[in-house]
Amino acid sequence: MNDNETTAPGESGALVSATPGGVVAQSQADAVDRFENPGLPPHVHRLADDDESAAKRAERQVATMFGLSMLGALVFLVAYFVVPDESTFYFPGIGIASTQNVVLGVSLGISILMIGLGAVHWAKTLMPDTEVVEERHLQASSPEDRAKAVASVSKGGEAAQLPRRPLIKYTLGGALGLFALPLGLQVAGSLGPTDVEELKTTIWDPSYNDGKPIRLMRDPEMTPIKLEDVTNGSVFHVMPETLQKFIDEGKHVLEAKAKAAVILIRLDPELIKVQKARDWGVDGTVAYSKICTHVGCAVGLYEQQTHHLLCPCHQSTFDLTEDCTVIFGPAKRPLPQLKIQVDDAGYLVAPQGFDQPVGPSFWERLR
Ligand code: FES
């Protein structure tokens, strides 16, 4: 308010402000008084409220949805054990997809969707839809209040007609119970491989190439690499030539590819301090798994001056001159080295797979 304004009580006792121009502004309290409580719209009865046959029909519809949810969960369980991991098919617009993943995803989606739709339809057709005024109480947690809460839940169950609609009660129980099984199975079965041999075996293993050494290929061009292509300080992201076979045969390649990623670097051979690292490389050119031994990010940063490899996720740092030992960060073991040689045509090849598991080291704790 400025100096030219005067204030006086209004008719309703609220304050009004008179401005020099004669305009009177009512206070907020008066403005609120001008609106009447609009109340609630008249209650409209639903079909199922008055017609028992409509209620029965709604009950069957809800039960059908919960039944479809159970069916989805059962398909999930069967597919989990029956559809082979490596089975794939061509999905237009996406490419090669894992059959098992698609079946599991669709069946689990149907299972949860049907529980949701069933619950919504149940609420819209059979549960009470009258407006209820709920008074606020102090938030107390006395035994009496808890007892009241339990009684209120029971009453809610009765209001939802659970005791009168055993079909819904049992199918809902079945749907929720069965739905928990796929979730448990997913959690238990998806915590990663615990078999050390499985982690150690990648498609760098000569068994994937009829026992012959495997060529190192540029990623993603998939062209072979000659030793003279690798100049001092250069870095190559490398995949095994066996990956192409996987792709040509339409196999599911993502997991194999993730485990096989390798980084190839050339440095002055005199800088390499560890004899084994030197022997497993060629003239200062060395290859290491690109999967961080902390939690599996791609170790893709190379500091040419210090010869350090850095993981961008949590800054684990590996020293290339010391067989990629960890010099900083949370990783607990060196990056596994891939032994390389040069074949008769001058291309770099791996005569053997990794001699230790690639990736995170959680498996060590199992021992
Ligand atoms: S994943 Fe590499 S440091 Fe954490």
TrEMBL record:
It is a multi-pass membrane protein. It is found in: Cell membrane. Keywords: 2Fe-2S, Cell membrane, Disulfide bond, Electron transport, Iron, Iron-sulfur, Membrane, Metal-binding, Oxidoreductase, Respiratory chain, Transmembrane, Transmembrane helix, Transport. The keyword Transferase does not apply. One of its GO terms (cellular component) is plasma membrane. Its main location: membrane. The chain crosses the membrane at residues 62-82, 102-123. The keyword Iron-sulfur applies. Residues 259-349 form the Rieske domain. One of its GO terms (molecular function) is monooxygenase activity. Belongs to the Rieske iron-sulfur protein family. Iron-sulfur subunit of the cytochrome bc1 complex, an essential component of the respiratory electron transport chain required for ATP synthesis. The bc1 complex catalyzes the oxidation of menaquinol and the reduction of cytochrome c in the respiratory chain. The bc1 complex operates through a Q-cycle mechanism that couples electron transfer to generation of the proton gradient that drives ATP synthesis. This is Cytochrome bc1 complex Rieske iron-sulfur subunit. It comes from Humibacillus xanthopallidus. The lineage of its organism: Bacteria, Bacillati, Actinomycetota, Actinomycetes, Micrococcales.
